[in-house]
Design brief:
Number of domains: 1
Shape: globular
Distance between the termini: 32 Å
Strand order of the largest sheet: 4-1-9-10-11-12-13-14
CATH architecture: 3-Layer(aba) Sandwich
CATH topology: UDP-N-acetylmuramoyl-L-alanine:D-glutamate ligase
Helix content: 25-40%
CATH superfamily: Ribokinase
Number of helices: 8
Strand content: 25-35%
């Protein structure tokens, strides 16, 4: 089943608390900078990126029954995101992500997605009970899925009838959660969005380049694999072959959300008919604009 909505975004929707230092940092440093709080989480970042590109995302997630959750729902609605199917988790706080960044990149981060994990498959009820789909009439459109769900739930999704017809776009959320995605490699509609480190963690080996990693994941059963490698060439692998492209050279002003921006831009590019190198270059340009601060999002 599909509806008038273009894509479901399943996973973390939370508050990002980001501290950005003006200069280099080492362990134990106490330095001046800026601290911001804004809506975030992998599913949320992808949804915002898709909405900016004209798509209509639906959020499937868990948000706490607390003041922070009420505020976050209002922020989602103001951004034009469909929040009708969000699970309000009773007795659980709204999740948060905290990161410290400096001009050289990410210093450290902690993702507190415990409420999302505790909610479990309650967030997937609209795909089971007929509101968005069901096992007998599964959702047949795009789904962006992030690795903040538990390993058990991701493993179930790999074989659930309600996901069998989906064009499933998957992000690991972080290198530490990449291994959770292994059961999804054989899903016939699965596309993976990874960096080179995450690709290596999924397959339990290291790679010297994004093209090498993308080719290995396709050989392991990936239907479409996008692998980035910082300033080095990125790659898209499919059973039909491999394409590569180099990201634009820019100064890095922010890091958190760059991979989600890349993924959203690539999904939107393919949704309007771009493919291969053209879609890959579009996504790399969007991510470069984001990290350089040229993208005001």
């Amino acid at each position: 089943m599909s509806t008038g909505n273009d894509i479901l975004c399943i996973g973390s929707v939370l508050w990002d608390v980001i501290g950005r230092a003006h200069g280099p940092m080492r362990l134990g440093n106490d330095v001046p900078g800026r601290i911001t709080r804004l809506p975030g989480g992998v599913a949320m970042n992808i949804a915002m990126g898709l909405a900016r590109r004209g798509l209509r995302p639906v959020l499937l997630t868990a948000i706490g029954h607390d003041a922070e959750g009420d505020e976050l729902l209002d922020a989602c609605a103001a951004l034009g995101l469909d929040t009708r199917h969000i699970h309000r988790a009773p007795g659980l706080p709204t999740d948060r992500y905290m990161a410290v960044e400096c001009p050289e990149g990410l210093v450290a981060a902690i993702a507190d997605a415990h409420s999302l994990e505790a909610a479990g498959d309650a967030i997937l009820a609209p795909l089971e009970d007929g509101r968005l789909g069901s096992p007998s009439a599964p959702w047949s459109g795009l789904i962006a899925l992030d690795g903040n769900l538990t390993e058990d739930l991701l493993g179930e999704i790999a074989t659930r009838p309600s996901f069998a017809a989906a064009d499933l776009r998957i992000a690991p959320a972080s290198p530490g959660k990449a291994v959770r995605l292994r059961p999804l490699i054989g899903h016939p509609g699965a596309s993976f969005y990874l960096n080179r480190e995450e690709a290596g963690l999924i397959l339990g080996r290291s790679f010297n380049s994004a093209p090498e990693a993308a080719a290995a994941l396709v050989s392991a059963g990936g239907a479409q694999v996008l692998v980035t490698d910082g300033a080095q060439p990125a790659a898209e692998g499919t059973p039909q072959g491999l394409v590569t492209a180099s990201p634009p050279r820019v100064s890095c002003l922010r890091v958190t959300g760059a991979g989600d921006t890349f993924m959203a831009a690539h999904i939107a590019a393919q949704a309007i008919g771009l493919a291969g190198e053209a879609a890959l270059q579009t996504a790399l340009a969007a991510a470069a604009a984001y990290v350089s601060g040229e993208d005001s999002a």
